[in-house]
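Problem statement: downstream parser choked on a complex file, so we are re-checking the raw output for the manganese (II) ion run. The parser issue turned out to be on our end (a line-ending mismatch), but while we're here, posting the original submission so the record is complete.
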Amino acid sequence: MDLLEYQGKQHFASFGIPVSDGRAVRTVDEALAAAEEVGYPVVVKAQVHVGGRGKAGGVKLASNADECNEHASNILGMDIKGHTVEIVWIEHASDIAEEYYASFTLDRSAKKHLGMLSAQGGVEIETVAESDPDAIAKIWVDPVDGLTEEQARSWVLAAKLNPDVTDGAVALLRKLYTAYTEGDADLVEINPLIVTPSGAVHALDAKVTLDNNATYRHEGWDEFDATQVRDEREQAAHDADLQYVGLDGSVGIIANGAGLAMSTLDVVNQVGGEPANFLDVGGGADADKFVQALTIIDNDPRVRSIFINIFGGITRGEEVANGIITALERIDISSPIVIRLDGTNAEEGRAILEPHLSDNLQMAPTMLDAARKAVELAGGTPR
Ligand code: GDP
Ligand code: MN
């Protein structure tokens, strides 16, 4: 889950990282009241799940109420890269002496956390990586050991930050590491990380991606979830607790297990089709899950056929078959369905499906055959 900037700052603040005082608001009047509270000059900042707001005109300084009124009016409702601004963050403006960049994310191939730090912040880090890769100091942190004070210090030296702020930067980066690990984030990024004229280091922006699998241990995350922007299909799937990602193709996909669902997308692509979605129904096979999954997919106007790809493991084939048949008795599905059922008790499962087969409910012996059949039913010519 990607957080809005102000939520990322809340996350940072809870780990002791210095951020500016601010308020998240939805109207111009609220913006003016917030500016009075935090004190002018203020920055009016669009809150959308996308970067580059500054360049798009979504970050403006206001030194008085007239300017705040003007900027809040312009920014609320503004479209930034397809995202409509519904919330602005009003924060007390900072004086900037220097702009740095800092982030932590997971380096899966190294099986370590990757920290990146640069004295060239405030611009897109991808640009720095291209034009001056040596300006980014990288550190790989063993998750068991954590980020020690010593490591952080040599990292800061390697990034050639202003030597006057070494202590402050080391302290902030160690807190950022904690906000990343203990805070259950997949990504934390501060750009710019600023130094004020008095030498304080401070997070001026926040980009945080939380690990959804950790939601159960953080009650406060409900509030973050409430501002997530999902398309209709994704919202319905989210409410039904299904792992779903909407795509643009015509073949609806249902599989049990994320790995199998991914492979199913690949196979559909391989035979010349276009998947309409990723959907993992998870373990278990109750009819309710299939009702929800089939309904979400069938409501998608792009979908022309549905490919159900099940590999029985702990969940047995006959349970899945019964789940699907019961679901189909409860709902009307307009697109034809192709089922591939394999794994534990596949024979028993297929025997249960057999009497129900028709033009609209077909079965195929292998994943490849089923993919071809689904592509054909979607109006394509399978390879
Ligand atoms: P982004 O464009 O979406 O990354 O938004 P940022 O929060 O990073 O803001 C963009 C730029 O606006 C920053 O790089 C700063 O140069 C400027 N900016 C943001 N807040 C302040 C502030 O409090 N004071 C000053 N002087 N500039 C700011
Ligand atoms: Mn930024």
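For whoever reads this later: DSSP finds 13 helices and 18 strands in the chain.
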